Amino acid sequence: MEVKNKALELFEQHFSSLKDPRDKRGKLHDLQEVLVIAILAIICGADEFTEMEDFGKSKEEWLGTFLKLPNGIPSHDTFGRIFSVLCPEDFRRCFSQWVKSLCDIEGDIVNIDGKALRRSYDTESDKKMIYMVSAWANQNNLVLGQEKVEEKSNEITAIPKLLSLLELTGSIVTIDSMGTQKKIAAQIIDKKADYVLALKGNQSSLKEEVEQAFEVFDASKQANVDKTLQVGHGRVEERIAYTVAAKDFLSPDQLEKWEGLETIVMIEAYVYYKNGKNKGKQEFQQRFYISSLTPKNPARINEAVQTHWGIETKLHWVLDVAFREDDSRVRKGHADENFTIARHIALNKLKNEKSLKRGIKGKRKKAGWDQQYLLKVLAT
Q1: Are 36 and 11 in contact (CB under 8 A)?
Q2: Fewer CB within 10 Å, N or C, the chain?
Q3: Sequence spans of domains, the chain
Q4: Do residues 147 and 165 touch, judged by C-beta distance below 8 A?
Q5: How many CA atoms lie less than 13 Å away from 331 in the CB half-sphere?
Q6: Residues 154-171: tens digit of each pLDDT
Q7: Mean pLDDT of 73-98
Q8: What global pTM score does this model have?
């Protein structure tokens, strides 16, 4: 009972402020209890509202030992209706507050990137596919927060909203070229964090100045250099980071526009395929970045650039493979957005439970089979 009480106490501590959008008349199920059952069901493998109902009914006797359940288990229609009308902004705020209590972000590398929910569109209602921007903390191994990209908009408008929710003091924020915007850079500095931002065509004049800077001298001799070698998955990759002080090469106009800009970066990646269908193939890539970190620490900048892809392999890939997010047809009202937040809650809890040395898929199965382990996950 102590573990059960702790699990509920942790959940209620951070999610009890959620406003119930339902009319009080005819309300049969407590909002907090509905959400607890939903999160437990997702942890155990539920990917649809019907599966939440099935989970609840199969575990009703056990759930009744720590939930009141005055009217039994909610139907799948009830789960779906609550998820469709629940305010996602409030749900995200509660999520962010909960995550802040779990981790120390100082020194971590935070990746921000977007992901489409590929089957969230609805041709009958002309609802477009939704796109979520998420923040991933590599060292903490947790989702920090998420923000929906509004229709007829893009990541540029969603990223500032997401940043405003996050505690970032002492971290390094990495964003792909879409988020390389002056206001976003300034917001990261205001958050007492550092940034490493990719440069592509959307900042053409800045990118041109950075490229020209690295053409006027021998980078291997005059820049700060860090080299890394990775071997795995049938390939060998050498990554070389060259960093120089921005003030020595960029125009005063550019330096004035970009808050906190200290360093311009060139990354060269040499890839050799040892086996497989690309055996013997060689590739070369050259990419450019700006950073608020000092040019005297190329190793940290190289690490930040390389770590950015952690959000793809540790978050987006896991959501697609272990949670089947791309197959989800949940899309009525706010249900798709709220279901994404609920998945992130389940994922964080599964990753934060360290006693079982399994992948997320294995942990979900274990939680479904072992009620004591399920409570341990909920209590993390």
Answers
A1: yes
A2: N
A3: 2-95+333-378, 199-296
A4: yes
A5: 21
A6: 788 999 999 999 999 999
A7: 94
A8: 0.90
